Amino acid sequence: MNPGRFHLTLFVDGEPAMQGWWPLESTARDQLPVWVGSWGGLPDARITLVDEETGETLTTWPDEA
Question: Which of 13, 19, 26, 31 is the most buried if burial means most Cβ atoms within 10 Å?
Fold first, then answer.
């Protein structure tokens, strides 16, 4: 198991401000609402969850239309 496969990044004003890596997708997804609650009010905040093994963006907050 890759210890850092699932990568959350908080971007503020387009720049990475905080990052975290988890071995399980479910754990990373559980962290997403925590991050939104803690840092979602920052100017132009955006959070992405990426599978580092495949390069796929799994989700983005706020949702991209």
Answer: 31
